[in-house]
Write a structure and sequence with these properties.
The complex is a heterodimer of chains A (434) and B (99). By secondary structure, chain A is α/β, with parallel strands linked by helices. Chain A has helices spanning 14-25, 51-55, 106-119, 167-171, 195-202, 243-249, 253-261, 267-270, 317-336, 343-354, 357-364, 368-374, 376-395, 402-433; strands at 4-10, 30-33, 48-50, 70-79, 84-90, 101-103, 123-125, 130-135, 141-146, 152-160, 183-192, 208-216, 224-230, 234-242, 274-284, 295-296, 299-301. Chain B is α+β, with helices and mostly antiparallel strands and 99 residues long. In chain B, strand 3 and strand 4 (60-62) form a beta hairpin. The N and C termini of chain B lie far apart (38 Å).
Chain lengths: 434, 99
Amino acid sequence: MIEQFDAIVVGAGMSGNAAAYTLASQGLKVLQLERGEYPGSKNVQGAIMYANMLEKIIPDFRDDAPLERHLVEQRLWVMDNTSHTGIHYRSDDFNEAKPNRYTIIRAQFDKWFSRKVREAGATVLCETTATELVRDGNGKVIGVRTDRAGGVVFANVVVLAEGVSGLLGTRAGLREMPKPETVALAVKEMHFLPEEVIDQRFGVKGDEGCVIEAVGTISRDMAGLGFLYTNKESISLGIGCLVSDFAAMLESPSALLDAMKNHPSIRPLIAGSEVKEYAAHLIPEGGYRAIPQLFGDGWVIVGDAAQLNNAIHREGSNLAMTSGRVAAEAIIKVKSRNGPMTKGNLALYKTMLDESFVIKDLKKYKDMPALLHTNSSNFFTSYPRLMSYAAQNFMRVDGTPKIEKERATTAAFINARSRWGLVSDAVRLALAWR
Amino acid sequence: MTIAVTKVRVEDKLYQNRYLVDSGRPHIIVRPHEKPSANLLALTYVCPAKCYELNDRGQVEITADGCMECGTCRILCEKGGDIEWNYPRGGFGVLFKFG
């Protein structure tokens, strides 16, 4: 007899686990497929986890989830080769009973999340790569082919939580392959240091944590972002730039990361650390305009596979978790009124997601990806250099009258971008941000 | 004073990672070519695991053992037919300890 599931969830990342947990905890018969040896073994993230979106799925997650530090301070550094100009925000208000943001280590966190999924009643099958969607004569998705012997499994609906480079959706023509200009390649190293050294260097204590995000010449004329997140006994340090930029500039991501580590503002923070892992991952950066069709006959797409990532705010896993949960809730609603999993019925998922912060936020920034992409050398190199020049000129006391210093700063900006260029950049940024 | 820049070879970085290599079954194959396309050539720089290298005949070769399965080469080269791309069989490939 062929085993039939209510739902098959492909992938055990944030969106897949959120979907499988929500479906299984409502009593649906769920099969989840994961190609890694254990859930998390193929997953890479910075990683910051937002409590609110997980609370909506597992309210008491703080009791046993592996969390590293809750964040009390955020720094944004605009860098040139020898300096950084920084904006810091730190507040003791973040030391609350139920903190808002945590750093996590994905391999550990995903194992925990997956245990919750199994406890909720789902069947989780690891070491199984889903290779193809199976459809009936009318084109409705009815199952998934896997790389196991005789490995076809059937379900009323398939949740594609297969990540940005998932095979199934792209091969079946349900979504396009991401384009080089709509995905960023990020590389990351895990730098281990004793807990008290991290506390000291970042001015934190106990479970408090700090985030540094850096833009500027570290991305060498490409649109990119460097990051440094404090975990309990390690620092996640990485940098990501658009794949199209990497290809055009013929830059080595690993060399870019090494150069960032050698920046005089960053080197002291990681001095003496032991690197225990080097990872790479693609991040969907196309924003609202790159979101594919999210549902069809017998299928829905969630998380990174659906390009649900807010690159401007560096939010991804919370959009993934929310889309997984919302897709599951839509499926549960359709099932509860005995509806078949047709395109018409599953449109409910899109309606519900449109109402959430996920689509509203992405819509707000729909023009940002194009702006940053076409203007990367100005935003990531010229302006950071000019800021550094202005700050240094202002701080050096050398007998030059202030009025001359002001004139020199203004002249430097106009020289680099022209009056028209400055106004146009400001207007375009304001319009895209609106 | 010049500051000595420590340069770590990518191969040494990958040495920190855990892999279960599916011997004799590479999950990515470079299609035979006379002259590499611009995107295929770019991979010799852009692949974060440095899996792609030029041989002495000017063609691009791949050793997929250290692959971190990021998908960059797929994004750049699958559509143009330069490479044949798959994920490794279930359980094989990179196994992140931290991720």
